[in-house]
């Protein structure tokens, strides 16, 4: 009888819905994650995460927060994950990784009338580069000795560029996207060069069971094979603020 009960328990805990619910955090970063007219969190990355949770029968809730807080919660709170998180060597041991859900180019943007020459990333060493606190681009450039000026909200940086308070802005452009954020500075702030390429993931707290991570990664691969992820990408292909 004990054997039967043990078998039933193991079967139950292996079912998709048996794992503890996930608390998933994200930032406001259109068109990746944003709120629609009803207040619901939507967006290209959000729709992929929701499809993944539905495919595996995982209970979850999504909360939109400032990036630094969202990122820190995934590091410190059990059963918590954060998207879209750049997977870098510096972050590798901090999380369990599900993905990639997307790819991104890291670009340096500047004023259209910038007075300096920028042929390689080393040409930027003498310049002031705007970043966001806790962002992977800030970590990458800071660790390599660049002069970074970090702010709490990344979309403050184009205004700082226009006011000549910084010389460059380190921007992440998702696969297929054209411009970050609102377009009131279109034509005034422009891309100058690509300095790195990364893949982005759903990054989960180390408490999330390996079995659950493996299940989510397997389901994400299915969503990629059956075209679900591509359909979501096409849905936001011509999105505008």
From TrEMBL:
Chain ranges of the Solute-binding protein family 3/N-terminal domain: 25-236
Superkingdom of this protein's organism: Bacteria
Name of one Pfam family that matches: SBP_bac_3
Keywords annotated in UniProt: Signal
Presence of keyword Aminoacyl-tRNA synthetase: no
Keyword Mitochondrion: no
Position of the signal peptide: 1-19
Cited Gene3D superfamilies: Periplasmic binding protein-like II (3.40.190.10)
UniProt name for this protein: ABC transporter substrate-binding protein
Originating species: Duganella dendranthematis
């Amino acid at each position: 009888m004990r054997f039967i009960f043990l078998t039933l328990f193991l079967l139950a805990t292996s079912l998709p819905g048996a794992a503890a619910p996930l608390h998933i955090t994200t930032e406001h970063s259109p068109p990746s994650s944003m709120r629609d007219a009803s207040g619901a969190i939507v967006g290209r990355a959000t729709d992929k995460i929701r499809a993944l949770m539905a495919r595996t029968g995982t209970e979850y809730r999504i909360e939109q927060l400032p990036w630094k807080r969202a990122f820190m919660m995934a590091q410190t709170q059990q059963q918590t994950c954060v998207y879209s998180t750049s997977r870098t060597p510096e972050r590798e041991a901090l999380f369990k990784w599900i993905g990639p859900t997307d790819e991104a180019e890291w670009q340096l943007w500047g004023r259209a009338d910038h007075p300096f020459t920028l042929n390689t990333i080393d040409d930027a060493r003498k310049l002031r580069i705007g970043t966001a606190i806790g962002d992977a681009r800030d970590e990458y450039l800071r660790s390599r000795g660049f002069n970074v000026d970090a702010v709490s909200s990344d979309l403050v940086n184009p205004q700082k560029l226009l006011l000549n308070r910084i010389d460059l802005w380190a921007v992440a452009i998702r696969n297929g996207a054209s411009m970050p954020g609102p377009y009131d500075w279109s034509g005034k702030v422009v891309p100058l060069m690509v300095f790195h390429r990364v893949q982005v993931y759903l990054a989960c707290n180390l408490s999330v069971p390996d079995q659950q991570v493996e299940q989510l990664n397997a389901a994400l691969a299915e969503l990629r094979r059956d075209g679900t992820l591509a359909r979501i990408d096409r849905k936001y292909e011509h999105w505008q603020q």
